[in-house]
Structure formats: structure tokens, C-alpha cells
Amino acid sequence: MLLLGGTADARRLAGDLARRPGFDVLLSLAGRTAHPAPQPVPVRVGGFGGAEGLARFLEDADFDVVVDVTHPYAAIMSRNAAEACARARRPLLAVRRAPWEAQAGDRWRDVDDVAHAIAALGQAQRRVFLALGRNEVRAFEAAPQHIYVVRSVDPVLPPLRVPHATYLVARAPFEAGDEERLLAAHGVDIIVAKNSGGPSTYGKMAAARALGIEVLLLRRPLTPDVEAVEGAQAALAWLEARRHEALRGV
Ligand code: NAP
Q1: How far apart are CA 210 and CA 208, in angstroms?
Q2: Domains of the chain, CATH where assigned
């Protein structure tokens, strides 16, 4: 099985699969982080060369099934997986994460992309917490009037060409109480983030609600229309059913 990862969900599912007999898993990572977390199964790193490259990879190594557990915003990889599996005639399961839903007290605004988030910050100086990938934050150089707190898994290098920025290097999970203290300490008045879903990065959302801080949420990209489940348990059930079908020669 080829597991397309890069998320904590993928790491957990890989661990669950490693403990079960009958599954031979290769986990694929894009290679975005300098020091990826240890993984419980064999890993390969780097792109495949688009949908065509992935289709060839599946055929050459004779994979039976592909499981897409990439991040909800990794839209290109998910689209390539759908196209490659259709080409190579391999079954594909997408493991999705439901988006967070706003609740009373939340001050969320959906924006189409980073450019719209920058426009929504306005001209007047804001204290902005950027909870985005280090490649996405560079666009904020276009709005140097703001005071930024930038958090990323790896350092943002070179630093942004803006006069006021503080950099925090940290990896989820983040707990709501710690997030509240962090946002208050930096006087943050607006957050730019992705609607990633799941508990590990929700702390900042709960903290924003408690502090009355506005959140600009990048809209989720569209996902391809493929068979999908939510959560590791459902994915394991689907994979077990497939394995039994294969053993019975169905
Ligand atoms: P993306 O824009 O959808 O993918 C860009 C390219 O990176 C793909 O076309 C593919 O290159 C390569 N790639 C992506 N995921 C891969 C994987 N699991 N294995 C091998 N190649 C992969 O995705 P992204 O936004 O760059 O995200 C990269 C990785 O970071 C994903 O695995 C994702 O789960 C993880 N991640 C992303 C976010 C986020 O917010 N975007 C957050 C946390 C984790 P080729 O076309 O050459 O095959």
C-alpha cells in the first residue's frame, strides 16, 4: 500500500497498519520539513513528477492500493493521486478531516487565498499571527505595515522583508491555554490560518474565541471526487474489507 502522508493523521494510520498483519505500507512524504517526525513504517521522500510519474510509480512497484492522508490544503497531491490511480487502475481511498465549524463567540471570516487575506488586513497597522506554511508567509512582505508573529515548523529563511516580525519555530499539537497566553503576550489582534480541522491545531481557534480575536481562514481547496472516509478507524475498516476481498480473489 502507498500511503500519501505529511500529516499526523497519516503517521497514526501508518502506526495502526504496522501493528496489523497483512499490510505492507510505504509512506510517502513531500519532503517539506527539514526534520520530519519519526515514522513507524518505511518512508520515501520527494515528489513523483505529477500524476503521470505517480501512475508509473504505482505500476513499477506494483502497489495494490493508495491511501491519500495528505493535508486538506495539499490539493495538487490529492488531484494527482486521483488521476494517477485512474490511469494505473488502482483503488484510491482519501482520508478526510472535517473542517472546524464556527460557534458562538467566534469572529471568523473566510477568505479565498493569501492575497485576499492580505487585502482583508487593511491599511492600518494590525498585530497579525500567521499560522501558515513558511512558503505562504512570504506573500505578507506586500503588507509591511503590520506587526507579525510567524509560527512555522522550520525557520523562515531568509526572514520576511518587513520591519516588525517575531518568529516562533514549533510543531503541533498546540494546547488552547498555551495559545491564549501566546496571543495575549504578543498583543495579537488578528490571526490568519487554514481551516485544517482536527484537534491538534484547534487550540488557537479556542484561544481566539476566548480573547475575542478575529480569524481570517483561507478557504479549503476543492478535493477530487473519490471514495473517502473520515478518520483512521473508517480507513482501517475499508482497508481490511479490501484485503479480505483480495484474499478471496473477488
Ligand atoms: P501540494 O501543493 O498538494 O503538492 C505539491 C507537490 O508536492 C505535489 O504535486 C507533489 O509533487 C509533492 N507532494 C505533495 N505531497 C506529497 C507526498 N505526500 N508524497 C510525495 N510528494 C508529495 O501539497 P503541499 O501543500 O506542498 O504539501 C506538501 C505536504 O505537506 C503534503 O504531504 C501535505 O500533507 C503536507 N502538509 C501540508 C500542509 C498545507 O497546509 N499545505 C500542512 C501540513 C502538512 P509531484 O507532482 O512531483 O509528485
Answers
A1: 5
A2: 2-98+223-248 (3.40.50.720), 107-218 (3.40.50.1980)
Backbone phi, psi, residue 185, to 5°: -60, -35
Is the Cα torsion angle 59, 62, 65, 71 positive or negative in sign? negative
- How open is the CA angle 5-6-7, to the nearest 5 degrees? 95
Closest-CA residue, ligand 1 atom 35, reads 6
Cell 480507513 belongs to residue:
235
**Separation CA 196–CA 115 (nearest Å):** 19
pLDDT by residue for the chain (250 residues), tens only, comes to: 999 999 999 999 999 999 998 899 999 999 998 888 889 999 999 999 999 999 999 999 999 999 999 999 999 999 999 999 999 999 999 999 999 999 999 999 999 999 999 999 999 999 999 999 988 999 999 999 999 999 999 999 999 999 999 999 999 999 999 999 999 999 999 999 999 999 999 999 999 999 999 999 999 999 999 999 999 999 999 999 998 888 887 6
Q: How far is the CA of 137 from the centre of ligand 1 (A)?
A: 17
Cβ distance 63 to 2 under 8 Å? yes
Q: Which atom of ligand 1 is nearest to the CA of 196?
A: 40
What cell numbers appear for 84 in the block? 494517477
Length of the chain: 250
- 3, 66, 76: which to mutate for ligand 1, most atoms within 8 A of CB? 76
Please give the model's pTM, rounded to 2 decimal places. Answer: 0.94
